[in-house]
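Q: Can someone sanity-check these two? First one:
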Amino acid sequence: MRPSLSPRDVVSELDRYIVGQASAKRAVAVALRNRWRRQQVTGELKDDITPKNIILIGPTGVGKTEIARRLAKLAGAPFVKVEASKFTEVGYVGRDVESMVRDLVEAAIALVRDEELARVKGRAREAAEDRLHELVKGGGRGGAAPRLSDAEREKFRAQLDAGTFDDVTVEVEVQDQGLTFVRNFSGQGLEEVGINLQDLFKGFPGQSRTKKRRAAVRDALSLLEGEEASRLVDQDRVTRDALKRAENDGIVFLDEIDKIASREGSKHGPDVSREGVQRDLLPIVEGSTVNTRYGPLKTDHVLFIAAGAFHVSKPSDLIPELQGRFPIRVELEPLSGPDLVRILKEPKNSLVKQYTALLAVEGVRLQVQDDAIEELARLAQQVNERSQNIGARRLHTLLERLLEDVSFSAGEQGPADVQVDATFVRERLAELVEDEDVSRYIL
């Protein structure tokens, strides 16, 4: 995490993507800053400072998941989102709770590896150009090649950019990755068998092989660049750094935690299993060591952000021990009509901006007027009140239906201007929204 990223900066950044929910933004911003503060502490006290886990309470579609996802991206932290309802108690067929820690390590590995690949990209590109130059000259098969001089490299790059070799194919020798073994053996479980067969056979005679492949020059450059980048990256260091990053910066987002809360006064049937899942989660959230295929990982300083609507149950229905591991509780507000208007207009990645960009690819210039946005927000709120309230997700459905005809014919009609105003919205959606029986199923 960047030391210059204050809680106020975090909130400001989250404001670019998420409307409202100031309390939740402040809570996660402070939690993120406290992680950086802990790393500056020296002495034994550092290990005793544990993250203050958070429960976000609020209806669906108000921004709970987006807050956690944007926070992780902002911090450059390994992040996984898991649904608590998918876990089953130990002894039952299903996804065990430790799998989320293994998923976190995989996310950390991917994150650190991408950073390392970006760091060596320039050197990998040059090495790939050296090899490709030899292939184009007919003096090699893509193996080690003499290094080009600066003048030779500039000339070769100019030829590539000019398309001189577009019609040329070369034979490249690249590393044979072998078979890709499937790790998910069933939809319900066994996805974490602890052994990756490809790793098991790594190092056996004949495992490190190359294969020949014919490719166009531009494709060959990409192949060689990827191979050189992989060769320059120290996988052992990636693993060490990733484990450290996951332990100190990892964020696990536990969605639908209310689904594993036992109903008040009920301690039999499904509620017994729910409580069993909670007890399985407890040591992970409290802090324990989980074995992964990359080595053991301690969860003491992983930040857990839980979320749930808590329509039927309430946070106090969780077992007391688990409640104690989530000391910060934040209630998110339901979205109002003005909030829905802001969601359509303000975020950097708003739905209106997304649809405008998509249709622009086909030459359709979409212009959505302010009165159309207000009408869309009004209709979304109306349907939410009459049927199930799914928050801002209702806007996805309405916009998709609103622009269905435009999207369908965009590739056929060529460049065009499409003006969307309140009348346009009412003509295409009002009848559907007014039909309560239809809207219940379609919207």
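And here is the second, same format, sequence then tokens:
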Amino acid sequence: MPLKERVLAVLEENKGKSVSGSEIAKSVGMTRSAVWKAVKLLREEGYSICAVTNRGYCLSEENDFLSEQAIVPNLRTKEIGRKIDVFKTIDSTNSFAKSLAQLGAAHGTTVISEVQTQGKGRMGRQFYSPLGMGIYMSVIVRPKLSVEQSLLITSCAAVAVADAIEKVAGIDCKIKWVNDIYAGNKKLCGILTEASVDVEQGGLEYAIVGIGLNVQNINFPKNIADIATSIKLETDRNVSRSVLAAEILNCLEERFSNITDKAFIDDYRSRSNIIGKRIDVSQGDRISTVTCIGIDECGRLLVRLDNGEEKALSSGTVRLSGEGVQQ
């Protein structure tokens, strides 16, 4: 690990507390002069680090930059997030994670960026991913699932993300089938899963779980301003993105550890914001207005048509009748 990152790790570990230059130097195995240069580089990157004579360096608790040094100390996982790449900017975390997966990256490998220039949403839409405002993260998972069971990945991930947001921010999160997290009647987070099939084995080779979560946003583009929200808007307080990102990874590992048992399905149902409501279902060019009557053990959406016929849907885009277009 480069010196700058090692110094940052020490400062993150003692965030809000002063650490002497000599103590940092001893910890990272370098001179005090080298530590001073590393601190200078971190300040140039935007970190607020104060220096007090006879007390040392102190990383302000107001810093909210995403970094491996800030995320890893908050992990309780064995695999997920233990290999992590953090970028200042990237086109799409899902696209980069996919390239890593194709090269054999291990289960749990995680890609995070401060900003995405081409963040992916469903149906080819672009996910709004401004600098420093959210958590844009993709996780490579290699579950032993059949192609038919692949819907469980997104459903399970949605419950895990909702768990994490509730633990860290105290927001009562609901889930709109299959991939959106809501706070009240507005979208807080979107999840996009992209999978690769092992043709010879007849199962999944890997899946990329992409998570786009609005954290600090207070303004949104006009096309989504009426339907999007953020943790900041919902709570009127600042939440550490690094702590929240780590908790999402913790909850993902916990939930994925028994995904085939489908233990999460009851929680998925209890968090649903569409069961019992009229919804519009888009499948290709066809849009049908139906009544949602439940979610089955495979994560499929159970609906009742106006003629009384009942169906189980494993694909499609859903929105509450009268709701705007999502990002």
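A (reply): Looked at the second one. The mean pLDDT is 91. The two ends are 37 Å apart (CA to CA).
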